[in-house]
Specification:
The complex is a heterotrimer of chains A (138), B (264) and C (227). Chain A has 138 residues and is mainly α. Chain A contains eight helices and no strands. Chain A has two domains: 91 residues, Orthogonal Bundle (Fumarate Reductase Iron-sulfur Protein, Chain B, domain 2), CATH 1.10.1060; 28 residues, no CATH class. Chain B is an alpha/beta fold and 264 residues long. Chain B has two domains: 75 residues, no CATH class; 157 residues, Rossmann fold, CATH 3.40.50.11810. Chain B is built from 13 helices and six strands. Chain B has a four-stranded parallel sheet with strand order 4-3-5-6, with helices on both faces. In chain B, α6 links the parallel β3 and β4. The longest helix of chain B is centred in the C-terminal third of the chain and has 17 residues. In chain C, a hairpin with a 2-residue loop joins β1 and β2. Helix content of chain C is 38%, strand content 12%. Chain C has a five-stranded mixed sheet, with helices on one face. Chain C starts with 6 loop residues before the first strand and ends in a 6-residue tail after the last helix. Chain C has ten helices and five strands, in the order ββαβββααααααααα. Classes of the chains: A mainly alpha (138), B alpha/beta (264), C alpha+beta (227). Chains A and B meet through α1, α5, α6 and α8 of A and α7, α8 and α9 of B. The complex binds iron/sulfur cluster (3 copies) and FE2/S2 (inorganic) cluster.
Chain lengths: 138, 264, 227
């Protein structure tokens, strides 16, 4: 099912394994989310995202694996604003990391440091490169 | 003193619950802290960080190591070549916490040249305050950097974006998007009348200062504003001009400071 | 060399062989009938050509060694790693400078280092490889040189690194930069180069060339090594 197609989603047995896997990997009980949207309204990066963080949460709840194709999971910078604001005590950043990991663990790298021009490598501080590698490559 | 042997902590805490590999780096650093005590180099197993990302990574890894015995066992077995396992005794603190512990009064006493009439906007960024439970202060209403700046005699400008993300590592592969995030913070500080911004994290420093050239090309109305580490402001106020190494900052804060009579 | 009669069992790429105890892996392989064409060089622990991985029956540990140095153990599963697939990075030592980011610029993958220490565990020279990779990450050229001085570029660390780093290339860049920009020219070397150019050793060399092989071998074996 394409993202945001508006079709009614039913949480069948088939969709459960994905939700359970995300729960396990993130350590967060995604079922607690009641879609208040606080995470999305506080998130500083929504301009660059295709799905709002709260939408990502809903898709995980429903077990929709296509959420892994979204840009959002790569845009989240783990700033933890959502963790501080969520009234249900969910660390949404952990969920985002679990989703990234599910993709990265299938021999996928989101970025390739080989492609950075030498001028950039000369200028960028180690702290930027190390964190980028840890977050966006497998 | 600097630890005689150390490695990069990895800069970010690995969040996936089954991840062990990425905790090795910070745990090794924590072990070095215990080793420094054993070697008689320091009395207490306390490690002070300046960088917000080191602070967060070391502190969270420490917490995990102390509380998750399964992971601890795996980490110990992978670290078999060390002389001994990490005992969980190190304490991770940020320099701001150490200063607060010393007492703001003591800091004021040391001030030789108060930063009077200097309007400074403290910028915390993400990891000094978040996630909740691992910050140096309350994540929504922090006071610690404000307290320091006041002790140094500066006038604090409280900007709402003081703990908004600067764009972090997106500066590597999405530098324009990251620059926009930093731009919004810098612009707000200027609009609210700050002369300069004080911060603690080198990645924030890169995004908010070194990237100002790029920001200026992307946003025509951008005028530029100096950004300093809070420690540089301390050096200035304590009369240790040379130690401040202001020549390293870009944009150069010296013309502004000269104007305020705070630089020769 | 080999203890009379005592034999051990080794497995070379899965094939079982009985070989005399006390032999090095290299000699044991030759004893078993392998003709080594790659994976052998100096036979003296200096060239790094004979990188080998092995496990010993009863242990989970994957270990690394130089075949010309390591003595066989009973129940050893052996595979040689005669070559490490690694790109040869090109740089002009005259043009690059010992700047803090020089390692990251040429080997950006060092920013992926996990501090897992796998490289150090693999190094047959017992170097602190992880520590030199970390020193490179922070741009500490002297430290990299100090820690990597005995590296023979065998490649075992690079084969084992989960972050896909090729540590020995990083160390080599450090040593090149160090000699060029930090150490500077050594008087002794300059003096010797001048002597060579003046032809001081020409006659001696000619003499050597004319020696019969047996005499050459004798001289080689009785040579003095000064450190
Ligand atoms: S803030 Fe928490 S409860 Fe609200 S939408 Fe986000 S995850 Fe769900
Ligand atoms: S550092 Fe690497 S290449 Fe050099 S000797 Fe050790 S294992 Fe071999
Ligand atoms: S094996 Fe690779 S990742 Fe591990 S410490 Fe060595 S260089 Fe770093
Ligand atoms: S053959 Fe040269 S090191 Fe072993």
């Amino acid at each position: 099912m394409p993202l945001g197609s508006g079709e009614t989603l039913r949480l069948g047995e088939k969709l459960k394994p994905f939700r359970e896997r995300v729960k396990e990997l993130s350590g967060e009980d995604v079922g607690l989310c009641y879609q208040c949207g606080a995470c999305s309204s506080g998130c500083p990066l929504t301009d660059e995202m295709d799905l709002l963080p709260s939408t990502v949460m809903r898709m995980v709840q429903l077990g929709v694996e296509e959420v892994l194709d979204s840009k959002t999971i790569w845009i989240c910078s783990s700033c933890f604003t959502c963790q501080v604001r969520c009234p249900r005590g969910i660390d949404v950043a952990n969920v985002m990391e679990a989703l990234r990991q599910l993709v990265l663990r299938r021999k996928y790298d989101r970025v390739s440091i080989d492609l950075l021009p030498p001028e950039e490598l000369r200028e960028l501080p180690q702290i930027a490169l190390v964190s980028c590698q840890r977050k966006l490559t497998g | 003193m600097e630890l005689p042997r150390w490695n990069c902590c990895g800069t970010v805490h690995a969040l996936a619950k089954d991840d062990v590999m990425h905790h090795l780096a910070p745990v090794r650093v924590l072990l070095r802290v215990e080793e420094a005590v054993e070697a008689g180099l320091v009395d207490e197993p306390r490690v002070v960080t300046l960088c917000a990302m080191c602070y967060n990574t070391l502190k969270r890894a420490n917490h995990l190591y102390r509380n998750d015995s399964d992971k601890r066992r795996v980490i110990e077995s992978i670290m078999e070549k060390e002389n001994r396992p990490y005992g969980g005794k190190a304490e991770v603190i940020h320099l701001l916490e150490l200063l607060s512990e010393l007492g703001w009064g003591k800091i004021s006493e040391r001030v030789e040249r108060p930063l009077e009439e200097l309007r400074v906007a403290p910028y915390y960024g993400c990891l000094l305050l978040r996630p909740r439970g691992f910050g140096v202060d309350d994540p929504e209403e922090p006071r610690i950097m404000e307290n320091l700046l006041e002790a140094l005699g500066a006038e604090v400008v409280d900007i709402p974006f003081k703990s908004r993300c600067c764009g972090a590592y997106h500066t590597v592969f999405m530098k324009e998007e990251a620059a926009e995030l930093s731009y919004k913070i810098l612009r707000q500080a200027s609009e609210m009348g700050a002369d300069l911004i004080a911060l603690s994290c080198p990645l924030c420093m890169f995004n908010m200062a070194d990237r100002q050239g790029l920001i200026g090309r992307l946003f025509r109305d951008f005028k530029g504003i100096p950004v300093l580490y809070f420690t540089q402001l301390m050096a200035l106020a304590f009369g240790l001009e040379e130690e401040a190494h202001l020549e390293e900052n870009n944009p150069d804060p010296r013309p502004l400071l000269r104007e305020r009579g705070l630089w020769r | 060399m080999e203890k009379e009669g005592k034999m051990v069992t080794i497995y070379v790429m899965g094939k079982k062989h009985r070989v005399p105890a006390g032999l090095t892996i290299m000699k044991a392989m030759e004893y078993a009938g392998y003709q080594l064409r790659r994976g052998v060089g100096c036979r003296g622990g200096f060239c790094g050509a004979c990188a080998t991985l092995y496990r010993v029956k009863g242990s989970y540990k994957l270990q690394a060694a130089l075949a010309c140095q390591k003595v066989v153990e009973d129940g050893m599963y052996i595979v040689q790693i005669p070559f490490t697939p690694a790109e040869k990075k090109l740089y002009d030592i005259e043009k690059i400078r010992p700047t803090p980011n020089v390692f990251v610029e040429h080997f950006p993958e060092i920013t992926r280092c996990l501090s897992c220490n796998t490289c150090t565990k693999a190094c047959p020279q017992d170097l602190m490889v992880m520590d030199y990779v970390q020193a490179a990450l922070r741009g500490d050229i002297e430290k990299v040189v100090e820690l990597s001085f005995d590296c023979i570029a065998c490649g075992l660390c690079a084969i084992r690194c989960p972050a896909e780093i090729v540590p020995y290339q990083v160390a080599q860049l450090a040593r090149r930069l160090y000699s060029k920009y930090i150490l500077g020219l050594s008087e002794e070397v300059e003096k010797r180069v001048a002597e060579v150019e003046e032809g001081k050793f020409d006659e001696e060399l000619e003499q050597l060339k004319r020696l019969p092989p047996e005499e050459l071998r004798k001289r080689y074996e009785s040579r003095e090594i000064r450190v």
